[in-house]
Specification:
Blueprint: E1 4-8, H1 16-29, E2 33-37, H2 43-53, H3 59-79, H4 83-110, H5 115-122, H6 124-139, E3 144-146, H7 167-177, E4 183-187, E5 190-192, E6 198-200, H8 206-217, E7 221-226, E8 247-249, H9 250-258, H10 270-273, E9 279-283, E10 293-298, E11 310-314, E12 318-323, H11 333-343, E13 348-353, E14 357-362, H12 367-377, E15 384-388, E16 391-397, H13 407-417, E17 424-427, E18 433-439, H14 443-454
Parallel strand pairs: 1-2, 1-7, 2-4, 3-4, 7-9, 8-10
Antiparallel strand pairs: 5-6, 9-10, 11-16, 12-14, 12-15, 13-14, 16-18, 17-18
Bound molecules: aspartic acid and magnesium ion.
Residues 9-10, 38-39, 44, 125, 188-189, 203-206 line the site of aspartic acid (ASP).
Length: 455
């Protein structure tokens, strides 16, 4: 029987009721499956903060471990009636926290966190989730077993902090480790390099872990459980009557995620597209007793009458404008700029060039550093650098967008009617997305105007 891989995030692990609901969901599946879990809500951020703080302050180790132990003790106390199981589980939690403590102590004494240690430390949020959930399932009479990525191993390309899973190398081991007809619980967010080092899969990467496991197992589906129905036609906080999108293609889902729809990690569909494994988005809040999907992500393209399926936005795009007469025709400028940004670990989101300016789209967190990196290059072709912040990027996404005339016209007209100025527009870079940049203050009216136009 092909397996189902189901992913539960931090938002499904906040309260006792959340965890009990999760147990009911697993019962409702009533089949062998692989469950991938994230850290409890907020834990990864907490680990990240401690990682910095312990370099200077040893007391921070104790503060964190006390916090983790008391939090887990509370969960155990809430969920286990049997005193012996509760004590055994707490012992296992203590062991894991003690491992974490050893890493943090090491960081304190050397005064820095090498990247391979950083990745191990940050994986502990997930490791504690999988341990606890396995015990909770067992105490509810479900045959569950924890399976760690290093036991498979879930092999990656070895890049710390942002690794990519190597499906070819990982598949056999994953299949063997998860072979039995039972419930496996796997901590998300990390895999291991070929030489066995823990490598994180990027922030929010548990979705991607789950997708990679689904690919290795040739699963029947990847089911991602959320506290919302699925992808919507726009952010329900911004528009009056958002509609649930029942079906999306892999490409549409990837673009919507890239441009800010916070449902899935943008890389989730990547492993699943070529084998055609569907992704189902399901809402745990409205779960009663039947497994019912909100949005299904598949390969089959559907083109709707109005083409656009969703309007989304992200406030995480800034422009670094490099001015200079002739940057558009001078050879090598872009290569030097992108090379320097790459060396500094800065990701370029997009580039638009003209005769007199190169516009580099970057994440807000990188813009100041990118400015300094390029300033230091002292390129004669660039006479002025400008960092433009307080922007929003709005994307309209739908299959068929490039093949149907008139969509861009409708976008322009809808925005013009509301007097919204488009600072930049990109169409054609993706076959399913047209995106444009407006001042941050124009973001909400722009999303509303487009939603009204297309829905
Ligand atoms: N816990 C990790 C993070 O916060 C991974 C995840 O939640 O998917 O980034
Ligand atoms: Mg997440």
């Amino acid at each position: 029987m092909r397996k189902v891989v189901a992913k539960f995030g931090g938002s499904n692990l906040k309260k006792k009721e959340d965890i009990l609901k999760l147990v009911r969901v697993i019962r409702a599946y009533n089949r062998p499956m692989v469950i991938v879990v994230s850290a409890f809500y907020g834990i990864t951020n907490r680990l990240l903060k401690t990682l910095e703080a312990v370099k200077h302050d040893e007391d921070e180790i104790r503060t964190l471990t006390d916090f983790l132990l008391s939090m887990k003790e509370e969960v155990i106390h809430e969920h286990f009636d049997d005193g012996k199981i509760a004590r055994d589980t707490m012992k296992e939690v203590e062991q894991r926290v003690a491992e974490l403590k050893r890493y943090l102590t090491g960081i304190h004494y050397i005064g820095e966190a090498p990247e391979f240690v950083e990745d191990v430390v940050l994986s502990y949020g997930e490791r504690l989730s999988s341990l606890l959930l396995t015990s909770i399932l067992r105490s509810n009479g479900i045959d569950a077993e924890e399976a760690l990525p290093e036991e498979m191993p879930l092999i990656t390309d070895g890049e710390f902090g942002n690794a990519t899973v190597d499906y070819q190398r990982a598949s056999e081991g994953v299949k063997n480790r998860l072979a039995d007809d039972k419930i496996y619980v796997v901590p998300g967010f990390y895999g291991v390099s070929q030489d066995g080092k823990v490598t994180l899969l990027g922030r929010g990467g548990s979705d991607y872990s789950a997708a990679a496991l689904a690919r290795c197992l040739d699963a029947e589906s990847l089911d991602v459980w959320k506290d919302v129905e699925g992808f919507m036609s726009a952010d329900p906080k911004l528009v009056d009557e958002p509609v649930l999108i029942r079906e999306l293609t892999y490409t549409e889902a990837a673009e919507l995620s890239y441009f800010g729809a916070g449902i899935l990690h943008p890389r989730t569909v990547e492993p699943l597209k070529s084998p055609g494994i569907p992704v189902n988005i399901l809402n745990i809040d409205t779960f009663k007793d039947r497994i019912k999907c909100g949005t299904v992500i598949v390969g089959k393209k559907t083109v709707t009458d109005d083409i656009i399926k969703s309007v989304t936005y992200s406030d995480d795009f800034c422009i670094l404008k490099l001015r200079g007469a002739g940057v558009g025709v001078k050879r090598g400028v872009l290569a030097k700029v992108s090379g320097a940004l790459d060396k500094s670990g800065i990701n370029i989101k997009s580039v638009l060039t003209s005769q007199i300016a190169i516009n580099i789209l970057l994440s807000a967190k990188d813009i100041k550093r990118a400015y300094r990196v390029i300033e230091r290059l002292e390129l004669s072709a660039i006479t002025e650098i400008e960092a433009i912040e307080q922007l929003s990027t709005i994307a309209t996404v739908g299959e068929g967008l490039l093949d149907h005339p008139g969509v861009a016209g409708r976008i322009f007209s809808a925005l013009a009617r509301k007097n919204i100025n488009i600072r930049m527009i990109v169409s054609g870079a993706s076959s399913v997305a047209t995106y444009f940049i407006v001042a941050a203050s124009d973001r909400n009216p722009a999303v509303k105007a487009l939603h009204e136009e297309f829905f």
